[in-house]
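Write out the 3D structure for:
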Amino acid sequence: MAELFKNRTNTKGLHMHPSLAHMPMQQPIPLAAEEGTFSLTPQSMTDYLPQNFTFERVRRLIDPSTGWNGPEYWQQHALQMSMMEDCITAVELIGWDGEKLWRLLCQKLPVPDDPPTEAQGLAQRVV
């Protein structure tokens, strides 16, 4: 699975990877995005899904030989958001820009008694 993402920073074109090229194109479900701000094609949907499958594999993996406990790590360290209620709302707030959402979620918390930066404020609204 890790080989799928070697030298990648996004999933664009992942459906053409030799390990996935045999898979049929997936039909996206319609979403209520503003016209022109979000386009979900069969190619982009098929590119998107492997990251979820990979994530689920790592999240559920328990490997005694390395001490990795995915379920425990998930419970203690993951920001758990509901896809339909939280993630869709979050990306709608920032114009369906996944990279911008990532940058916002990586913001440090504001220093106590200091006003948040614009990015920190938006990040707080997103979460």
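The radius of gyration is 17 Å.
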